[in-house]
UniProtKB/TrEMBL annotation:
GO terms for biological process: carbohydrate metabolic process. One of its GO terms (molecular function) is hydrolase activity, acting on carbon-nitrogen (but not peptide) bonds. The keyword Transferase does not apply. SUPFAM superfamilies: Glycoside hydrolase/deacetylase (SSF88713). This is NodB homology domain-containing protein. It is found in: Secreted. Residues 84-347 form the NodB homology domain. The keyword Signal applies. Pfam families: Polysacc_deac_1. GO terms for cellular component: extracellular region. It comes from Marinobacter lipolyticus SM19. It comes from the Bacteria. Coiled coil: none annotated.
Amino acid sequence: MVKSVLVKLANLLGETGLYRFLCPERLPVFMLHRVMEGKSDLAGALPADTLRSYLDYLASRDYHVLSMDDLWRVLDEGDEIPSKSVMFTIDDGFYDHHDVAASVFDEFRFPLNFFVITGLLDRELWPWDDQITYALHHTGIRHADIRLPSGEMYSVNLSADTVRQKAREVRNALKSEHQEHIYDWLRTELYKKLGVEFPTDIPPEYRPMSWDEARSLRARGHGVYPHTCSHRILATLSTQEKHHEINESLRRTKSELGYLPDVFAYPTGRLSDYDSVDIEELKKAGFKMAFNTVSDYVRRGQDHYELARFSLPGNTDKFLQIVNRFEALNDWRTHHSPLPVSSFPSR
C-alpha cells in the first residue's frame, strides 16, 4: 500500500518534467508482442484499450513518438533527443499487429516499427517459443520426460506448475540449447511426448499478417524490418546459419517491400542471445542499427547494434515511470546513493 502511494506520488512529480531535467538525453523505446481487442487467453497479450490509453496520454501532453529515421538522426548525426519523446516497436509479425496494434497507432498518427519473422509471413513456420505454449495448452498428459536437443532429460510436470509457468521454464531451457534443428525437435520430441497432434497449418491465434498488409503498414508511415527467418537464437547457431538468418531475412523483406530495411531485432534479445560474430554479420549485410531486449534507455553515442528496449508494461504506473524518466533516476540512485535501495519505488 505504502509502496503504491509512493509510486503514484513519484509519477505525479514526473508530470512536472523534473526527472527529464535530471536525466536528459534518454529515449525510452518500448517493445510490444501481442495486442488484442477485448479479452484474450494469449499469455502476455496487451488489451488494445490499455495501449490506446498510453497513446492518449502521450498525445495529450505533446510527446514526440519517433520513427527509425528520427532515431538514426540522433545516433548518427547527433540530433538531440527531445525531452518529451518515446518510440515503439513490435516483434514477430502476427495478424493482430496489423489488424489491432497498427490501427490503434493510426488513430493518433503515431509511427510503430514492426520487426517481422520472414518465415512466419511466408507461412513456412510459426515461432518455436509459441509452439511450446501451444503444445502445453493442448496436452492431456500431466507429466512427461522429454529429451532436449543436447540429450539432457527434462521433466515436464503440469500437476505442479501452471501451463504459463511451465512454458516459460521450457522456453528458458531451450534458449541455451543448440537451435539449428529446433523445429524438427518440436515435431519429433515435444509434440510426440506430450501426445499432441502436430498442426498441419498455423493455428488461428498464431497466424501471421500478410506481405500485402506489411506493404500497407509502410504506406501508412510505419516501419517494417527483419527479425530473422525463423526466430532461432543467433548465439546458438553455426556461422553458416547465422549468415542465412540475417541475410535471407533481409533479402525477403527487401524483395517484398521494395526498400532497404536496414534495422534488425535479435530474437529473444538478451545479451547472451547474440555475439560479436552476429554484429559483424549485420554490418556486412548493410544493417545500421539493431535492438536487443535489455531494459534500458537509448542514449546518443552508444553502440548502434545494441540498442535497448523496455517491454511495454501492462501497468500504467510502470509505463509512466519509464516515460517520465523516473526509471532513469531510480537506476542512478540505486548505483550511486548511499541510501538503501528500498527507499525508492522499484520496478
